Amino acid sequence: MSRKIASLWLLCALLIGGCALLPVEVMPTRSGITIPSITPDTAIAELTPIATSIALPVGVYDALPAMQGICYESASDAVGRVFVMENAEAHINFYNQVDNSNLCRQPVRRYPFDFTTGDVLAGIWNAGSGCTATHTITDFQRDDNARTISITATFSTDGDCPYQLVRGLWLGIENAQGYAITFTVEPL
User: Which of 94, 40, 101, 33 is nearest to 63 (CA)?
Assistant: First the structure.
């Protein structure tokens, strides 16, 4: 019996470890989008996934991985600006603007977002001092008749650490192309 258990553990280890060794282009992801794994040269902004106090509304998902190539300096420069991208061209233009700003030491690593299903990429960066930074979505209103979406969130920092933090809140919104989207973030 113990030999069967050992064989099962070996099989599990190979499956888990083997998946980590797969090339990025074959890693399984949501919606078929490939999201590269974090490497040692990962920027600070890449290591801060969003945190919400409520579940994301139906049809909304965390899209921060689509922005993980943006360097801290560029995200810091964009603090408070709302970005809404409805197609791949807008996403590419966004990356080009970041590259042309010369705020990042290297060209920005570009990560895909699937716009082909009608999804929209909407987000904002916020900054503050402390040990941790958090966004909390407090309201989400979608009116399909008026074709409007309103997102309200709060931003807060916690702790006495002397760090300047930049936190991104980037959302994928399903079937929202052509909608007027407002995004408001209030400090706590």
Answer: 33
The distance of Cα 186 from the centroid of its chain, to the nearest Å, equals 19
Find the DSSP H helices in the chain: 2-20, 72-77, 88-101
Burial class (CB in 10 A: 0-12, 13-18, 19+), 36: middle
**Predicted TM-score of the model (pTM):** 0.70
Residue 24, CB-side half-sphere exposure with 13 Å CA sphere = 9
For 122, the 3-state DSSP assignment is strand
Residue 113 CB: number of other CB atoms within 10 A? 22
Phi and psi of 23, rounded to 5°?
-60, 150
Express each pLDDT in 53-64 by its tens digit: 446 889 999 999
User: Cα(179)–Cα(8) distance, rounded to whole angstroms?
Assistant: 51
